[in-house]
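Consider today's protein:

***
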Amino acid sequence: MTATVVAISPDRFNHRKTIASAAGLVALVFLAHGLSLWGTFIWDDLELIVRSPLIHASAGLWRFWFTTQAPDYFPLTSTTWWIEWRLWGNHPAGYHLINLLLHATSAVLIWRILVDLKLPGAWLAAAIWAVHPVQVESVAWIAERKNALSVALAAGSMLLLLRFHYSNRRSTYIWALTLFATALLAKTAVAPLPVVMMACALWKGRGIRRTLLETIPFAAITIALSSITIYFQTQRAIATDVVRTDGLASRIAIAGRAVWFYLGKLIWPTPLDFVYPRWATGDVSPHAFIPLLLLILTFIVLWIGRHKWGWGPLLAMAYFVLMLLPVLGLLNIYFMRYSLVADHWQYAASIGPIALFAWLVARTPTRFQRAIGIPIILILTILSEQQAWLYHSGESLWNDTIAKNPTSWMSQMNLGHTYAFEKRYREAEAQYRAAAALVPDLAEPYYSIGSIDAQQGRFADAVMEYQQAIDRNPNVASIYLDMAHGLAEISRPTEAKQAYERAMQLERAGH
């Protein structure tokens, strides 16, 4: 009997190993976040998709890209929703599936980027990033398609640019630049990436002059699209609303605190909250700057120790802070009206500390790597499953948020909206009253109570609630329109006409 020996080429073996590793990351994503497929539309998913006239309009794509009618400028993300509305309409599972696939794509691309950078523990880093509970918000919340899409495109751009450094093919560079532009059109949170690209090129030994010339087009696109985003955020999303009133010193102090907050949630991701308690602003006393000073000291230590530990730890922390920079509060973001921090804001940044941790694990013996890595991935996966399940209904998410943050008036309002949609009017009014008790000067609760009174035909009560809302904010056109309708229903035509005329004035003024 003769034995036949079949030789398998190393290239073929590596190819199979690469496919298996990528498939493992995709499987982990679906294990950790798969329950989000049963999720519903949450909060501004309704305004951005279900009730959006631009999504429903045949000319919606033109209006997203070339007008200021959208509340914010992320036209590529809006384009995906416009297409999907025509595929599965108001069934949320399809939107959730796309978010899952985008997150899985990002995980695979991040792994390949770390491999190309020759960082030990690349697969472990990508796996931890993929299943970490702080990512649930960006995956399970349909509105955060902005994050999932922009990071997937930005990761593709980064990988192509690294390949360009090896090949010097012009077409590879052009594709990298194109993908980066589309990433910014999905969401400009990846705006700091050109600095990261430049740092990686210099780290890999590419010349300074060449690196600068290759980075300039990326920086130019970033400046142009970021300027548009800032305009939309200030003129459309925020408009006349007051987000923050503190000065620059307070914002810098809070920025330092926020970096440690995000790092803490990466290390110990419990409890996570959809809306964290809003920190007090305006404190410029010396102790308010302690987190910032500790952050500066950390960078000094990493700089001094770079000869012993290498550049990896320093660059990982620098990447983390740099990618967080747009959301640290130096510029106003509408969500900061409710909280100064949010899990989805560290979606792209979190890979820095995670890669550093994986690098440290990779320096241990193999048996320890498995003993550390496998339990961590398992624990994080279970925590993400629990977090993802909260998104199966608005009621479960908002109740969980209120339980963790009883001061969140916005959560009280949204739980009220959830009950009102289900015609559970008494429960809705109780939530609106709770929000009004938290912020007595807020107009929204009274307007919402008036709306559910009108839905029940109680127009006299509705008019009284609308008046309460107007007393607190006399510059909202929709309140006057509903007031006019209520006044007409209770036979007060003169006052109804006055309310209608005031609504038209505010409409013309952009309110």
